Amino acid sequence: MKIYDFTLAPNPRRLRIFVAEKGLKIPTEQVDIFAGKNRTPEMLAKNPAGGLPVMELDDGTHLAESVAICRYLEGLHPEPNLMGRDSREQAFIEMWNRRVELNLLGPAARAFQHTNELFKGRIKQFPEYGAAQRETVAQQFQWLDAQIGDKPFIAGDRYTIADITGEVAVDFAVQLAGIPMDPALKNLGRWHKAVSSRPSAKA
Amino acid sequence: MKIYDFTLAPNPRRLRIFVAEKGLKIPTEQVDIFAGKNRTPEMLAKNPAGGLPVMELDDGTHLAESVAICRYLEGLHPEPNLMGRDSREQAFIEMWNRRVELNLLGPAARAFQHTNELFKGRIKQFPEYGAAQRETVAQQFQWLDAQIGDKPFIAGDRYTIADITGEVAVDFAVQLAGIPMDPALKNLGRWHKAVSSRPSAKA
């Protein structure tokens, strides 16, 4: 088993944190997205969609999409459980994971891609659209603060993949897209401090 | 059990097709997104993210996000299986479902939202960005045609949730966003004809 990884990108980090929380050690190989190494014929044969991470299974098959890889690993190593123990719990965790991914990580990524120098020439940039996506991220920070309320974690009383996606999304938004997190958002700040203090945050 | 539905939107349709493929009958209630009825205080109490579909469970809890609702229903009614029988198969189906959702349905939705009259005043529209998303959809049609190749279905040899998402994405792109599907894409056309001829396509 082996993971094709890229340290700077959010989806590979999501998988690295998941792997760390499971207590697993899986060999990784860096593939430089900024140098286009994820789009070589060799890498496209492993993942024709061109993204990272990609996991090579022991039989040589390649599995892409971070959440799909997490689900595979959850099946192999059910504990500590991060995606739900029965279909009802799985469904509610998936709801939260999707909300954070689609409504926060997505806009943060588009804000970055449409305004950052690194994407000049790689995509057709629309900086005004990127600026609007930044506003969306700021609104989503407020939304998430209200949703967390006094819950310890995003999906409820225990740490799950929704917290991993949230952590990756917030860090990407703040550190890479340069969208500040308002310190007045006390619930979000308390939750972010808690997830960031876990050893997996360094993964 | 009850589903808050809106006939014209792609995610509610995804759930309706899933329910039809399972052979289930679940009462629905229409919530008009275009009239903003999904953002009344009453509906936001059910789904604070404001989207549809939302399912009301028998204990009064509300579950949102179409794929999460599908996963819950799959747990209650495992056959016909649409999301994978073991974690390996679940992971590969999820990979395909995510590829189609994120790379095809997402751009089709953004193309529509940024260019259609219906979204004027509802979001800040960037028509040039919307036009670029149309090009992305056309490229994704080509990509999906190549990926389907001579496979009967998107994730391989049987019909899964990835086909449902693909069917919803293609129909939304063609019928609502007005992005034509090139008839030269023979694999995509053959697959689309097959999924469209299933009784569930009318759901």
Read across the widest sheet of chain A, the strand sequence of neighbours is 2-1-3-4
- The average pLDDT of chain A is 97
Helical stretch count of chain A?
A: 7
Helix content of chain A: 40-55%
Structural class of chain A: alpha+beta
Radius of gyration of chain A: 17 Å
Strand content of chain A is 5-15%
Order of helices and strands of chain A: EHEHEEHHHHH
What is the approximate shape of chain A? globular
Oligomer: homodimer
Distance between the termini of chain A: 18 Å
Biggest interface: chains and residue counts?
A: A-B, 33 and 33 residues
The major β-sheet of chain A equals:
4 strands, mixed
Low-confidence stretches of chain A: none
Number of strands of chain A: 4
Walkthrough of the structure:
Two copies of one chain form a homodimer. Chain A is an alpha+beta fold and 203 residues long. Chain A has helices at residues 10-22, 41-46, 66-76, 87-115, 127-148, 161-176, 186-196, and strands spanning 2-5, 28-30, 54-56, 62-64. In chain A, a hairpin with a 5-residue loop joins strand 3 (54-56) and strand 4. In chain A, helix 1 (10-22) packs across helix 6 (161-176), helix 4 runs antiparallel to helix 5 (127-148) and helix 4 (87-115) packs parallel to helix 6. Chain A binds chain B through residues 48-49, 63-65, 67-69, 71-72, 74-76, 86-88, 90-92, 94-95, 98-99, 103, 106, 124, 126, 128-129, 132, 143, 146-147, and chain B through 48-49, 63-65, 67-69, 71-72, 74-76, 86-88, 90-92, 94-95, 98-99, 103, 106, 124, 126, 128-129, 132, 143, 146-147.
